[in-house]
Design brief:
By secondary structure, the chain is of the alpha+beta class. It has helices at 3-12, 16-29, 40-57, 80-86, 89-95, 97-107, 172-182, 226-229, 237-242, 244-247, and strands at 31-34, 59-65, 71-78, 112-113, 121-126, 132-136, 142-149, 159-163, 186-188, 195-199, 203-207, 216-224. Strands 1, 2, 3, 4, 5, 6, 7, 8, 9, 10, 11 and 12 form a twelve-stranded antiparallel β-sheet that branches. Helix 1 packs parallel to helix 6. Bound molecules: 2-oxoglutaric acid and fe (ii) ion (FE2). 2-oxoglutaric acid (AKG) is lined by residues 124, 133, 138, 143, 145, 159, 205, 207, 218, 220.
Length: 249
């Protein structure tokens, strides 16, 4: 059986009640944590592949991103091109029609594979004290993040977000300051083997700093909606700063 057939058979068995639960959970704050999205062997294949690529191909990123109000990024990562060339499970997940269809059911709109190759998938790993993926918005509407290594629950690296907040591209730092001052921040520890779907273009979000030398490794997949595909203002500036090898920047 192909990876896609395995995924399709697995998702077909989800009870309607589970799908309805995920839909309503998503609607509440435009973020939903999903358990057991993949059959066990596919999940293991994807985890093993991510760990191998990380140990053989990781590059250290330590940058400050002006477009998101001078917030930091500090982690090891493997970019899209290496994963596309050497990976099997991660590209199969991204390319999967069953996965795309499932997320469209959860969100209630049609999702598309992101049309900009460098954002298809990326492996990120926070592993030093202080490693963080600072406050930002994504260029495209949806991020699906698979947790490969979860941090120790006492050691930070939590998913923090405020849904339904637009990205202001001028005076961004002041805007973030206002948003963080006025709102309650949602904070989630996402466990290994879980993934979460986030409306990442419309949520101010970050991964808080690791507070000890634990490890948090994820695979980030990006999906677009009609709004993104028809938006002439959509740019990739932050991507070009963080992942120059994959964007030819
Ligand atoms: O690591 C995560 O859970 C989120 C990553 C993220 O926000 C991004 O890659 O844009
Ligand atoms: Fe993000």
């Amino acid at each position: 059986m192909s990876i896609e057939e395995k995924i399709e058979n697995h998702i077909r068995q989800f009870p309607v009640s589970l799908v309805n639960y995920l839909k309503s959970d998503y609607q509440e704050d435009l973020m939903v944590v999903i358990d057991d999205l993949l059959p066990h062997d596919v999940r293991e294949g994807m985890e093993t592949e991510a760990r191998r690529l990380l140990s053989e191909e990781a590059l250290r990123r330590e940058v400050i991103i002006a477009q998101s109000g001078n917030t930091p990024r500090a982690y090891d990562s493997v970019g899209r091109n290496v994963i596309r060339e050497q990976g099997e499970y991660i590209p199969a997940f991204f390319d999967s029609p069953s996965i795309l269809n499932f997320f469209s059911r959860i969100t209630g709109e049609t999702l598309y594979r992101v049309p900009y190759a460098p954002e298809e998938f990326i492996i990120n790993s926070q592993n030093k004290t202080g490693d963080t993926h600072g406050w930002h918005w994504d260029d495209y509407s949806y991020a699906l993040v698979w947790v490969i290594d979860e941090p120790d629950v006492f050691s930070g690296a939590r998913v923090e977000f405020i849904p339904r907040v637009p990205w202001k591209k001028t005076a961004t730092r002041e805007w973030i300051k206002d948003v963080l001052t006025e709102n309650t921040i949602r904070s989630r520890h996402v466990s290994q083997g879980q993934c979460y779907l986030l409306r990442a273009r419309d949520a101010l979000h970050r991964i808080s700093p690791l507070t000890s030398a634990s490890r948090r490794t994820v695979i980030v997949f990006t999906y677009a909606n009609d709004l993104d595909l028809n938006d002439p203002e959509l740019t990739h500036d932050s991507m070009e700063t963080i992942y120059p090898q994959d964007t030819q920047a």
